[in-house]
Amino acid sequence: MNSHVVTGYPLDNHRTTPIPAFAQFAKAVHDSPNIDYLWLWDELSGWFPGQLWSPENTPAAEFIDGNSTYDPFVQAAIALAHNPDANIRLSTDAIRSAPAELLRKVLTLSNATTGNVVVAVGAGELRQTKPFGYKRTEGLQRLEDILQLVRRLYDEPQPWTQETNHWHLKNATIGNHRPDKRPEFWALGGGPVLLDIAARYADGFEAASPQAIQTPEQFAETVNALRQQVESYGRDPEAFGFGIWSICVCHEDPEVIDKVLANPIVRYFAGQFGRLDQKRWLDEGETPVMPDGWHYAVKWAPFEQSDEEVRRIVDATPVSMSRKAYHVGTPKEMAKLHSEFVEAGARFVGWLDMTPLALGPQEGLESLRRADEMSALIKLPAGVVA
Predict the structure, then answer these.
(1) Minimal CA–CA distance to 379: which of 327, 338, 344?
(2) Any bridge partners for residue 127, and if so which?
(3) What is the pLDDT of residue 1?
(4) pLDDT tens per residue across span 196-231
(5) Contacts of 356 (CB under 8 A, 6+ apart)
(6) Are residues 223 and 204 in contact, defined by beta-carbon separation less than 8 angstroms?
(7) How far apart are CA 126 and CA 180, in angstroms?
(8) For residues 53 and 66, is the Cβ–Cβ distance under 8 A?
(9) Which one of the record's GO molecular function terms can you name (predicted)?
(10) Could you read off the pLDDT of 312-365 as tens digits, one per residue?
């Protein structure tokens, strides 16, 4: 058994999903033998503009409002009330977070479980910031602030004073009590500045695959380089974690996979986010859908896109590009690929399967079953998965 890798599966974050149904699904994820983490995201809006979020494109649109979301920290508390020994992973951004308040929330969750709590913090997205009065351009500075201040607040319970990029803490303390297990704060995203911040202050680093990091070989290069950076700051590289968000289309039937990849919502996502660096499409024989220099986190404002622009993106994204924008295959094929990511250094793999989005929420439990199967396989000793 490969005891170094853990896996996670996302919980529904839509407010139109009744809390009892959410709690029931959280229990199903927790009861899955090979899924280690209940996984939640901090999103103020969904991924798909109104003209795309329709029953013709996703059966979920008949009863789910894609832009009405729950607070993931409250959701995590609800999930732990029903599963008090669960492991929790959350993601949030540094722009909408305050260091003391974020740490207090996380310590509250840590006291609610015998398991682990991990929070991945990113530099923010335009769609989560601009509409609500935040400045996306402050993202990396605020990420540096958050990661260093939550660490110091945890490590030094006596009052202290420090001024950072955007915060002036004076005689700051959140008290002496600490949970049995220390929560972890990982950096989420990419780029040299973010990786340097992660090396100095974070407990780990994770990124989307194949969108940001495409292959196990590329991931291995990132792991090796970042471990050297961590060590250069006098920290233990062996204690630093690495993970991927596997954005995938997984099914046993190739015809079903073809149907999912041709779905307008799936193609819209592929055209804009399939490669965070649009130039990379050229090396793969595809014509980029978005302009040169376009990165979704700093450019994408879905509710500013016209109906014509949304249709253009979908129409300009061929199924061949859609197929390359995701990890695609049967559970065994996916397990083989992701075992190579594990060998390259991944200690967390989160499964983000697009199949329920395209085919309907009734596919959710089957998707969870496949994720559990893949999780079991990648935990086998290296080289066993064929």
Answers:
(1) 338
(2) none
(3) 43
(4) 999 999 999 999 999 999 999 999 999 999 999 999
(5) 60, 362, 363, 364, 367
(6) no
(7) 37
(8) yes
(9) oxidoreductase activity, acting on paired donors, with incorporation or reduction of molecular oxygen
(10) 999 999 999 999 999 999 999 999 999 999 999 999 999 999 999 999 988 999
Amino acid at 359: L
What predicted TM-score, i.e. pTM, was given to this entire model? 0.95
- With CA atoms as reference, report the closest residue to 48 among 68, 69, 70, 67: 67
Mean of the per-residue pLDDT values of the chain: 95
**Do 95 and 14 meet the contact criterion of CB atoms below 8 Å apart?**
no
The structure tokens listed for 345 are: 């250094």
Distance CA 169, CA 167 (A): 6
Rounded distance between C-alpha atoms, residue 77 and residue 11, angstroms: 13
122 SS3 class:
strand
Spatial distance between the Cα atoms of 175 and 385, rounded to a whole number of angstroms: 48
For 169, other C-beta atoms within 10 Å of its C-beta total 18
Rounded distance between C-alpha atoms, residue 378 and residue 6, angstroms: 9
At residue 348, what are phi and psi to the nearest 5 degrees?
Answer: -135, 135
Please calculate the CA angle 226-228-234 and round it to the nearest 5 degrees: 110
Nearest-angstrom CA–CA distance, 31 and 40: 17
d(CA 8, CA 1): 17
Structure-block tokens of residue 92: 């949030």
Q: What is the model's pLDDT at position 49?
A: 86
Q: Which residues contact 6 (CB under 8 A, 6 or more apart)?
A: 36, 37, 87, 347, 348, 349
Short-list 347, 343, 346, 344, CA closest to 382: 343
List the domains of the chain with CATH numbers: 6-379 (3.20.20.30)
> Helix 192-201 vs helix 139-155: angle between axes, to the nearest 10 degrees?
10
3-state helix, strand, coil in the chain (%, to 5): 45, 15, 35
Do the Cβ atoms of 153 and 125 come closer than 8 Å? no
| Residue whose structure tokens are 């919980």 | 11
Helices (H), 59-138: 72-82, 99-111, 126-129
Report DSSP letters for 318-362, one per residue. Answer: -HHHHHHTSEEE-HHHHHHHHHHHHHTT-SEEEEEESHHHHH-GG
Q: What is the DSSP letter of 12?
A: P
